[in-house]
Amino acid sequence: MVNDKILVVDDESIIRENLERILSEENYQVTSVATGEEALSFLKETDVDVVLLELNLPDTTGIEVLKKGKELDPDLLVIIITGYASVESAVQALKLGAYDYIKKPFKADVIKLIVRLAFEAQQLKKQVGSLKRRLKLPSHLNIIAESEQMRHILKQVTEVARHESATILITGESGTGKQVVARSVHLLSPRRENPFLEINCAALPDNLLESELFGYEKGAFTDARQRKKGLFEAAERGTVFLDEIGEMPMNLQAKLLGVLENRRFRRLGGHRDITVDARIVAATNRNPKKAMEQKEFRQDLYYRLNVFPIHIPPLRERPEDVLAMAHLFLFQFTQQFSKSFQKIDSRAAAYLKEYSWPGNVRELRNVLERICIMYDDTALSVSHLPREIVSFQGSSSFIEVPETVFDIEAVLDEVTCQLIQRAMKKTEGNTASAARLLGIPRGTLRYKMKKYKINF
Q1: Across-strand partners of 239?
Q2: What are the phi and psi torsion angles at 244 (to 5°)?
């Protein structure tokens, strides 16, 4: 916190002095100026983390300072302060990237809280950026690789992406991120500027799947009123991703094999061969070898697709990735839904890490999205988690059942009492903060304090 720098911009000296005093008490490095020109000169010469900016300045508007400040440093956090607040100016400032907006007169506690949350938001953004830099991948790739298994997969993706014609077969349970890996191969390859087209082979009936893949000529069937390109043709010099290839009918598997072997095909109803120049990436949640034994998947097609195999392990086998992904999703959905979440507390993190995640990454993403839709708080706590995660039988982070008989109610009372005392001590007797820390309503906390005769 000692290295955190704040610039206060306000033409009223008493406001500047008060803000300097309030924020210096929190060990921030605070500088104050009275005009927009002084503010911009300071920002050009000095790295600043947070700016507290008055909208109405003697030489310019706070909006102009905000715009130019963001041009100098896109990551600059700006908190608008004004005694002449209006809905229009607030909306305009927020649209231009202001972090928050408060009115004068303000309380010291409010200023301290908003500034602290601003720094926490900045820190979370840096952590997410750091995760992506560690991957050495473009920022638009949402692959997290904290586990050894995923680091190995990233090496595979990086290697095979350079060989733009190599066919890839991705295997793994539903929801493990096969589509993300396929898209990553495309985005890291020389084909990245061309289309990435995908189709779910299990989602369409046989005749529609065939026409989507190969296209058709006018009059090829009753509703074919005009010529249409299929995916193989439309993805010229790009990538075709065939998801759930294990569900493709056997007759279409034979046609696909012909495409892979000859690099050409014909539209439905057509008489002219069309050359294919697209990388084929396929994925399945089935075991291909078992499917072959059951005569549901062609052996020759399997060997043609399996030039470069990538297997993605389920999330339960790589718990190191869970929290990194949870933080990434929390950051994304907090931004999307304009919520206040800045972190995941330690108890919630333990439950997330120990849950088995039968739906894998898709389930984790959906849980974080649902939490951000339903709740708004600074920290994600156990109270926000779905019941199936909290009650998961494999969770053993906090309770060990002894071998001897014991009084469960007495134990629960003792644990509850200790947690409340620790929370109250940590928050210096602030019941609102303690309630948030414990993940319970303030009224519930007061009731339990009275019940257990806890005084602060």
Answers
A1: 196, 279
A2: 55, 50
What's the confidence (pLDDT) of residue 416?
81
Asked if residue 430 is part of any domain, the answer here is yes
Length of the chain: 456
The pLDDT of residue 20:
93
User: Which residues share a beta bridge with 215?
Assistant: 229
Between helix 360-374 and helix 320-336 the angle, nearest 10°, is 40
Mean pLDDT, rounded, for 173-195: 93
Secondary structure letter of residue 210 according to DSSP: H
Residue 142 lies in a domain: no
Q: What is the mean pLDDT of residues 98-112?
A: 84
Query: Which phi and psi (to 5°) does residue 377 adopt?
Result: -155, 170
CA 106 distance to own-chain centroid: 34
Which H or E run contains 199?
strand 196-200
Q: Residue range 189-195: average pLDDT?
A: 92
- The boundaries of the domain holding residue 239 are 152-313
- The per-residue pLDDT for range 321-375, each reduced to its tens digit, is 999 999 989 998 998 999 989 889 888 888 898 899 999 999 999 999 999 999 9
Nearest alpha-carbon partner for 376 in 145, 180, 169, 117: 117
* Beta carbons within 8 Å of 454's beta carbon, 6+ residues apart: 417, 420, 421, 424, 448
CB contact set of 214 (below 8 Å; sequence gap of 6+): 230, 232, 255, 265, 266, 267, 268
- Other residues' Cβ atoms within 10 Å of the Cβ of residue 65: 24
Grade residue 87 by pLDDT with cuts at 50, 70 and 90. low
Residues 250 and 288 both lie in one domain = yes
Q: Assign 77 to helix, strand or coil.
A: strand
The values of phi and psi at residue 3, to 5°, are -90, -5
CB 313 within 8 A of CB 349: no
Residue 211 lies in a domain: yes
Q: What is the pLDDT of residue 431?
A: 86
